[in-house]
Amino acid sequence: MxxxxxxxxxxxxxxxxxxxxxxxxxxxxxxxxxxVIKEQLAAFQRDDxxxxxxxxxxxxxxxxxxPEAYLAxxxxxxxxxxxPKHVTFLNLAYSRGRLVQRVLVVGPDGGAVVALFPMVQMxxxxxxxxxLVLVPTTGKSAEADPEPFAMLDALPGRxxxxxxx
Length: 165
Fold this sequence. Notes:
- By secondary structure, this protein is of the alpha+beta class.
- The chain has one domain: Roll (Nuclear Transport Factor 2, Chain: A).
- Helix content is 41%, strand content 25%.
- Strands 1, 2, 3, 4 and 5 form a 5-stranded antiparallel β-sheet that branches.
- Strand 1 and strand 2 form a beta hairpin.
- It is globular.
- The termini are far apart.
């Protein structure tokens, strides 16, 4: 099997095990969270700092101060999220009482990481991204990995924290 076929199989299988069945309140919650993250990723792709910043929680906005500073941090320190080649939404989980969306991201260099997006719900019911933690996978290129599922098995238990300055 070619590397590209293995990668495609990996993403299809990851989607199949990614979340709860359609229709229930858990599915709706997950879809709402995924929509926010997708919109923020799209804003990064457009270099739209104002839009990307709007999806950040008030605490994260206070930490960075301006949309320009926020965008600059992602452009330099979080390239896999800033310019992903592939994005696969994994499970929605809780860590220390906080909702966290796990996302497998293949960066522009072909390296895979799991991005942990802690989420916070606003008083109006909307969701915002409350930080970001990148967890390394096996360190191999996802496109060259002969056993792509090893990436998921290699994830240690990590704590979720706000985006560091």
